[in-house]
């Protein structure tokens, strides 16, 4: 009887410790999402107010921003998803206030399009042509006859 109580106590203790560890992990994920969501909104505010002195400076800024997001996606998918959601929300909120009346840099609208749709505007890539290929795979037919 004592052995059964001991075994049940150990099982209960192990189960409780696993549950506690999972709760801590869940809290960690939520706090990470909140951090990157807040960071994205701060970054978006900076981007919306950013005025470069030249097109090359503007291009360099947005290239660095794109690289940061690419590295974040490689490093941590959850953080990247939260960051992109924060950016999308911040740009949507700014769009309500701005309505193209604000003065933004040359590449700004391409990047806004990316945050909304997940791809960059095609107006700069209009010289690309699409090629379609049709692939047909035929399989042999097998017929069974009685004779």
Descriptive notes:
This protein has helices spanning 2-49, 55-75, 77-98, 108-117. It is mainly alpha-helical and 147 residues long. Helix 1 runs parallel beside helix 3 (77-98) and helix 2 packs antiparallel against helix 3 (77-98). Mean pLDDT is 75; it is low at 121-128.
**In terms of quaternary structure, what is this?**
single chain
Give the terminus-to-terminus CA distance: 75 Å
3D shape: flat
Measured by DSSP, the beta-strand proportion falls in under 5%
Question: How are helices and strands ordered from N to C?
Answer: HHHH
Short description:
The protein has 147 residues and is mainly alpha-helical. It contains four helices and no strands.
């Amino acid at each position: 009887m004592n052995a059964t109580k001991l075994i049940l106590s150990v099982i209960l203790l192990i189960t409780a410790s696993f549950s506690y560890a999972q709760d801590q992990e869940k809290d960690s994920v939520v706090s990470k999402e909140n951090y990157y969501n807040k960071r994205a909104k701060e970054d978006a505010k900076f981007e919306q107010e950013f005025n470069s002195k030249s097109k090359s400076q503007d291009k360099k800024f947005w290239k660095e921003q794109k690289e940061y997001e690419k590295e974040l996606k490689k490093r941590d998918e959850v953080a990247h998803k939260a960051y992109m959601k924060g950016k999308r929300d911040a740009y949507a909120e700014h769009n309500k206030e701005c309505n193209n009346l604000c003065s933004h840099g040359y590449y700004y609208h391409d990047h806004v399009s990316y945050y909304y749709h997940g791809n960059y505007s095609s107006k700069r890539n209009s010289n690309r042509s699409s090629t379609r290929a049709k692939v047909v795979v035929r399989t042999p037919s097998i017929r069974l006859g009685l004779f």
